[in-house]
Amino acid sequence: MLQDFIAWILATVHDWGYIGIFILMALESTVLPVPSELVLIPAGYLAHQGQMNIGLILLTSTVGCLVGALFNYAVAMWVGRPFLERWGRYFFVRPELLHKTDAFFVKHGAVSTFTGRLIPGIRHLISIPAGLSRMNLGAFASYTSLGAGLWSLILTLFGYFLGGNEALIREYQHFITAGVIAFVALIIGGYVWWQKRC
């Protein structure tokens, strides 16, 4: 079944082109398990072959990510927030925790949203606490787009330069992930240092 799912993703990118990338990346930014690596690395390879344009791949991918993230944000704000305010104590989410989350996102929402978009496993969930805390929508959209655009660029270039060499892709994919996580750690470390100086 997993192989069928992967084959469907690859076929969608190949057959639907930019619309397929937009749809799949929007789904990836919600809670559905669509790995962005399986969308953008093949798209980068198609760009390498001259069948797609890197700029349009990045545009449709970033906009798709933003649409999916805004969906999570809206559901968290309009459904999740009222639910937790009324019933949260039964799920160990007390009002004090919500207030702490609000305060955290007022102060650190920008860096959390940007770096969260670069971390696998967190990237599609970071919009939920942002929505729960009612983070400023303009700031949320801006930093989501920056993080999603950077992630899309990395994966697309990965597929472009390694071409169709699946063995190399499998070999170096872990290094890409580790490099991005190290980059995120540097950003967070610099941010913490800057906050302490202020």
Give the arrangement of secondary structure elements.
Layout: H1 2-29, H2 36-48, H3 54-87, H4 95-116, H5 127-132, H6 137-162, H7 166-197
Total domain modules:
1
Mean pLDDT: 78
Instruction: Provide the helix percentage.
Output: over 70%
Number of strands: 0
Count of discrete alpha- or pi-helical segments spanning 4 or more residues? 7
Biggest sheet character: none
Low-confidence stretches: none
Task: Give me the strand/helix succession.
Answer: HHHHHHH
Radius of gyration from CA coordinates: 18 Å
Structural class by helix and strand composition? mainly alpha
Shape: globular
Distance between the termini: 53 Å
Report the portion of residues in β strands: under 5%
Describe this structure in words.
This protein is mostly helical. It has one domain (2-197). The chain contains seven helices and no strands. Helix 2 (36-48) crosses helix 6.
In short:
The chain is an all-alpha fold.
